[in-house]
């Protein structure tokens, strides 16, 4: 489905719990996108937008419960997603 992509050296600190030399972010889009959304800077966001289609980023914003409420709210505003569509902004089941 996705082509092999690598984590650029300047983003290795975002992926502290995997081996960035062997990890394929495209094989784990939810994890990879969520890490950048939660902890990334402008450069990381630029990489994410090149590595993943916008539809995939929006899907992660909608479904990823591990995002903080602050990050989930920010990205919902950026991508014009209603807060009631964002899992991280819903009450815990």
Q: Give the number of domains.
A: 1
Q: Segments where pLDDT lies below 50 for 5+ residues?
A: none
Element order: H for helix, E for strand: HHHH
Ends distance: 32 Å
Helix content: 40-55%
Q: Number of DSSP strands?
A: 0
Q: Please give the count of helices.
A: 4
Give me the Rg, rounded: 13 Å
What amount of the residues lies in strands? under 5%
* Strand-pairing-aware structural class: mainly alpha
Which shape, going by the Cα principal axes?
globular
* Biggest beta-sheet profile: none
Mean pLDDT: 92
Describe this structure in words.
The protein has one domain. The chain contains four helices and no strands. It has helices at residues 29-39, 42-51, 54-63, 69-78. Helix 1 packs across helix 3 (54-63). The protein is globular, with a radius of gyration of 13 Å. It starts with 28 loop residues before the first helix and ends in a 15-residue tail after the last helix. The model has no long low-confidence stretch (mean pLDDT 92).
């Amino acid at each position: 489905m996705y082509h092999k992509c690598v984590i650029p050296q300047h983003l290795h600190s975002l992926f502290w719990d995997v081996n960035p030399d062997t990890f394929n972010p495209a094989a784990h889009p939810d994890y990879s996108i969520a890490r950048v959304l939660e902890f990334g800077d402008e450069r990381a966001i630029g990489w994410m937008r090149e590595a993943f289609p916008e539809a995939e980023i929006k899907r992660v914003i909608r479904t990823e419960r591990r995002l903080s409420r602050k990050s989930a709210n920010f990205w919902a505003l950026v991508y014009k997603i209603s807060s009631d569509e964002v899992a991280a902004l819903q009450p815990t089941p």
